Amino acid sequence: MSSSYGQLLKDMEVGLEEGESPVRVFLHEKFGVMTKNVGRSNHSWDLEVIGVDEDLIQSWNKGINVKNVEKRFINKLGRTFEVKRDKASDKTNNFFYEVWSSFKVNNPGCVNYSKADTLVIVRQKEFIFIDRGILISWIIENLFSNTEKGISWRKRTGNRVNKPTMRTSRHNQDVCGILIPIDDIKECYSAVVFER
């Protein structure tokens, strides 16, 4: 989240260009699935599946049952997607899980209030698809327990006691969250990773 409305609009454009657009192209080219960007409308997610490109799918292999492609895709990766382009994770190998997009006014981070089936973390060399609800539960389970992951995450935030400490964003001190190692996210059983 940004400190000014103008910066917010700029951030949304970057998110569209570097996050949502590449995911749409990837889903079409890899799975033949067509998506629509609905993030600027009144929906609670960024992308949603609107169908399959039957001509593209048939050009791959005439034996594919086109009617089942969309159903199999949705069963595996979901119908709706929240897309996060995390440039910092390319350098730090940590995902900044935004708990509050505005701590001052108790505005939760978009992953928390989104109704998307799947979170897509867009990195320079990969896409990570993960069930959004499972990710949230998994983070809470580890963060508030004495698991190896939970202890490691708390140490990353500078707190060695058994409770999480929020970090503020480098760009906006009102944005608070926690750092989750990308490698840990990839190990979560609902995560699916694709190279770009």
Helix vs. strand class: alpha+beta
Percent of residues in helices comes to 40-55%
Strand elements, count = 10
What number of structural domains do the residues give?
1
Low-confidence stretches: none
**% residues in beta strands:** 25-35%
Report the radius of gyration as a whole number of Å: 18 Å
Average predicted local confidence, pLDDT? 83
Widest sheet: strand order?
Answer: 1-2-3-6-7-10
Task: Provide the descriptors you would attach to this structure in a database record.
single chain; 196 residues; four-stranded antiparallel beta sheet; globular
What would you note in describing this structure?
- The structure is a single chain.
- The chain has one domain (5-195).
- The chain contains eight helices and ten strands.
- The protein has helices spanning 5-31, 54-60, 66-77, 87-92, 110-113, 132-143, 148-156, 182-187, and strands at 33-37, 47-52, 80-85, 94-102, 107-108, 118-122, 126-131, 167-168, 176-181, 192-195.
- The strands form two sheets. A six-stranded mixed β-sheet has the order 1-2-3-6-7-10. A four-stranded antiparallel β-sheet has the order 5-4-9-8.
- β4 and β5 form a beta hairpin.
- α6 crosses α7.
- It is globular and about 55 Å long.
- The two termini are 26 Å apart.
